[in-house]
Amino acid sequence: MTKLLAITFAAAGIWVLAGPTRAAECGEISIAEMNWASAGIAAHVDRLILENGYGCTVSLVAGDTMRTFASMNEKAEPDMAPELWIHSVRTQLEAAVKEGRLIQAAPILSEGGVEGWWIPRFLANAHPEIKTVQDALKHPDLFPASDDPAKGAIHSCPSGWNCRISTTNLYKALGAEKAGFKLVDPASAAELDGSIAEAFEKKTGWLGYYWAPTAILGKYEMIRLSFGVDHDRAEWDSCSAVPNCPSPKVNSYPVSDVFTVVTKSFAEKAGIAMDYVNARGWDNATVNKILAWMDQNRATNEDAARYFLEHFPDIWAKWVSPDVAEKVKAAL
Predict the structure, then answer these.
(1) Cβ 264 vs Cβ 47: under 8 Å
(2) Which residues face 80 on adjacent strands?
(3) Fold of 2-112+257-331
(4) pLDDT per residue over 275-284, tens digit each?
(5) Of 20, 40, 181, 300, which is the most buried if we count CB atoms within 10 A?
(6) What was the pLDDT predicted at 87?
(7) Per the confidence metrics, is the pTM higher than 0.90?
(8) Which of 240, 260, 242 is nearest to 252 (CA)?
(9) CATH number corresponding to 114-240
(10) Contacts of residue 222, Cβ cutoff 8 Å, sequence gap at least 6
(11) Domain positions in the chain
C-alpha cells in the first residue's frame, strides 16, 4: 500500500502541477456504473455532483471490476471508476499509475471493504466480555443451532463463495467443534440473511461470517469480532483461503482496499473536479444505511444517490467548496 500511495502522489503531479492552467469549465466525462449497489450509488452521486456542482456533461456506462479496469488502462475509457476494489488488479494498477495512464484518487470506502465473524449488537451489549471470536466460542449456549439447540452454530457461506472456504478453515483452526459448535452452510445468500433476520426477531444469538458494506448490516446492528491476531497474508494465500487445507491457523480476514480511479484524460478535462475526487469517501456505516434504505424502498441507484445527498449533507458537503455544495443542493 505504501508503495502504491507513493506512486500515486508522484503521478498526481500530472494534474497538481497543471492546476493553474485548469480549464474553467468541465468537459464531457464518462463514469462506470458498476454492477453492485454501493458502486452504482456512488456513480450516481458523482454524476449529480459533477453535473450540478461543476457543470460537467456526464454519461454512465455499465461496468465491473476487471473489464472496467482493462478498458480504462488500455483505452482511457470510461474516465472514472468510483469504487474499484483493487486487490484483483493491484499490480496492473501500480504500473498504470507509475506510467501516468491512471490516477488513484481517494479511498471511497474510508475503512475499506471488511469481512469477518459478527454477532448482534444487542448480544454484545448484554455480554461485554465477548470481544473476540475465542470469547464467543466459550458460550455455545448463546448461539444455539436451530436444528440442534444443544450445540452452538457458526454460520458460513453458500457453496461457491470463497468465504465458505475461509470460514471452514477458521472453524477447524479455532477448534470450534470441540467447543460445542457446528458449522451451518446456508444454501443461498437469502438463507444466510434470513438467519440474521430471525435472530433479531427472536432476540437470539447469531455468530458467523458477513461483510460490509451491505444492506443487511444497515438494517441489523452487528459487531465484528476480533480473531486476536493480525492478518497473515502468506498464511491466508497458502492455507486460510485454500480448500481442505490440512493444518489451518487462526487468521484475520484481509481488509480490501477500495479506491476511486480516474484516467489522465479525466484530470485534463475535469481538472476543476480533482479536489472533489481526492476528498470523497464515506464509511461503511453510512453505506450500510443507504443500502438498507434502498432495499426497504426497492429503490434504484439514482434514488439512493438522491436520498444520500438530501439526508447526509453533513458528509458530502465537506468534499466540495461551499459554492459547489449550494449548487448541488439547489438542483435536488
Answers:
(1) no
(2) 31, 262
(3) D-Maltodextrin-Binding Protein; domain 2 (3.40.190)
(4) 999 999 999 9
(5) 40
(6) 79
(7) no
(8) 240
(9) 3.40.190.100
(10) 118, 119, 120, 121, 196, 210
(11) 2-112+257-331, 114-240
